[in-house]
């Protein structure tokens, strides 16, 4: 039996305690099949990044469980099979792009020889060939975003988890990333990415999950969500407003 | 072995990041200036020029090392956590202890590099004093003891580095971690003095009757005064290889214990 | 010029004027209300507190304290009302200077500069802090087992200031045990301990102290005078010795000694006093009536 790429089961997360207690996720459950592109969307502060951090075991759930590629998060090792791009990728400013990818690749178990071949190819794909030996501290935001993308792909993982991958990119950069995601799907990779840019979701995703104030409002096929000829943006706003009326903040 | 590989690359990345940091070179330049000033400062005195030169040189190493631990080391750790740079590492198959220990070794080698540069400068200035003013160098002065004193200095700094890593592993804010580390440093430097006062002095005020508490504290906090061999090197006093070996052992075991606790606390930390 | 530039210049001038006025006022206030503290509060800390604050930099702080003490000694240049400059001794704050020595020694008990400078200034006029100097030297001797000088200086103080040759002798013998100690210490110590041959011993003490004393330090001229006087006494004692060998008894007076022809004339006394010889044949250069000072009375 093939496990889903991602399986989130009744996960809740609370930050703080006492009077500052803040429940950021309420019993989230969803599954992402292997080989699909799943869009996780919601307004700012909805809980998208928190969900992703729970998947990576940067945070621990207060209830529920998460599985990645069949492995129970927090109990079994799976990070060599995933690639992660954070919303704001930060690197060691005094390492070059090449050294950064070398570090990531070696930590993921790749050997030096294959890395020496792969790094230039990957950076060229990301339009960073000219900056291969420049210190990352001198990179622009867009360059760092693209380096982050290269960093997530260096070890050729099965599952890619991107947190706002288009953030900070100009139209050319966005086009590059969208093309990359489409390419990854054609290679049979699973892509789970969060975004609040609906046009990207429309263009790329098979299935989506909509989260608002820590609650999963919709989870399923994109086509079903926009059935009846509605635009994604209209439906999205409708769903959010319905939720707000039902449970005012 | 994946663990050794991860430790090596994390240490290497930390070392390169630190070595290329401008703050490091500013600190080293300051210390080089101090070392050069050593020669002139020694000549302000008419007796024991050798002792002044040795102490000035070793103090420059100590001061630089402390600046590196408290500012550069803690800045690198703080940036990792605050700027979420740690996700670059922890999204890989890297265990918490790989990260902590790898960082420790990387920063430790930075400290060693700085200590060697400054130690070299201190040796040069001391050599100048022994050449120009041989009559004012203590008769038992020994280059071997001087070298061991330098080594002891570095060992003390490694203990402080381990303390800093522990503080970082549980403190909520980098500034709190810095305060805790600095306080531990002051306590550690005066631990021997405190113990002596309480055990030997009948007029120890509120500490009377608290010998057990103070002795217990001296086991919990690092006894950094043991690593201060400036006076020993300055006057050429006895400093055996056996004592040096025991200092190395104390440093290794205490640092290992602190790193162990740091790892346990780090595992429970949430990288929000 | 644009309005913005004019505004910026005006603001700069205004702020600059405010700054100059306030700083000038502050400096004038400080000049008019100079308070010279009797004791420097910065250094007047208990030894334990000093040690705690100095941490691992005790040696450096000790160096600084002794430099500070040195800076408060000696002379300074002041302006004459009628123009020009003159050199005057500094206004000595002896309690603070002593505190600086004690503080420096607390932090680094083996530092030679501390005890050397303390010995050079404290026991002498106008400080007259002999006991304090002895305490400092005692600690230095304990912490510098390779150095004979602290004990040697203690011996000198016992002899010169406290008129206790016996005690001085013991200290010189103790100093003689130090590795590489000069051989004269043994001879000196035994002579003084036996209370015999004091003049020769005293001459050696003076010579050994003068060899290491700076001409600028207080007491140098006194010691030179004392040495000259002692050398004069030695000349007379030798003549007395020859008289005793020849006649079988001490001369009744110095006049009798000169009349015997064994001494051509009395050596000049740098203190401008007459030499006196008592019935036991002891020669005094500073007691024309031959009255012996009681033990413990500080000498000149």
Q: What does this protein look like?
A:
The complex is a heterotrimer of chains A (249), B (272) and C (300). Chain A has helices spanning 48-55, 97-107, 112-125, 141-153, 171-186, 198-204, 222-225, 232-246; strands spanning 6-15, 22-32, 37-41, 63-68, 71-72, 82-85, 159-163, 190-195, 207-212, 215-221. The mean pLDDT of chain A is 91. In chain A, the strands form 2 sheets. Chain A has a 6-stranded mixed beta sheet, sandwiched between helices. A 4-stranded antiparallel beta sheet of chain A has the order 2-1-4-5, with helices on one face. Chain A has a single domain, classed as Rossmann fold, CATH 3.40.50. By secondary structure, chain A is an alpha/beta fold. Chain B has 272 residues and is mostly helical. Helices cover 78% and strands 0% of the residues of chain B. Chain B has 11 helices and no strands. In chain B, helix 2 (22-42) packs antiparallel against helix 3 (49-82) and helix 3 runs antiparallel to helix 7 (174-189). Chain C has 2 domains: 47-218, Tetratricopeptide repeat domain (Serine Threonine Protein Phosphatase 5, Tetratricopeptide repeat, Alpha Horseshoe), CATH 1.25.40; 221-284. Chain C has a two-stranded antiparallel sheet with strand order 1-2. Chain C has a two-stranded antiparallel sheet with strand order 3-4. Chain C is built from 12 helices and 4 strands, in the order H-H-H-E-E-H-H-H-H-H-H-H-H-H-E-E. The model of chain C is unreliable at 36-40 (pLDDT under 50). With 300 residues, chain C is mainly alpha-helical. Chain C has helices spanning 3-32, 47-54, 58-71, 94-107, 112-121, 130-143, 149-160, 165-176, 184-193, 198-212, 220-247, 254-259; strands spanning 75-79, 85-89, 276-277, 283-284. At the A-B interface, strand 6 and helix 2 of A face helix 1 and helix 4 of B.
List keywords for this structure.
heterotrimer; B: 272 residues; mainly alpha; 11 helices; 0% strand; C: mainly alpha; Serine Threonine Protein Phosphatase 5, Tetratricopeptide repeat; two-stranded antiparallel ribbon; 12 helices; 4 strands; 5% strand
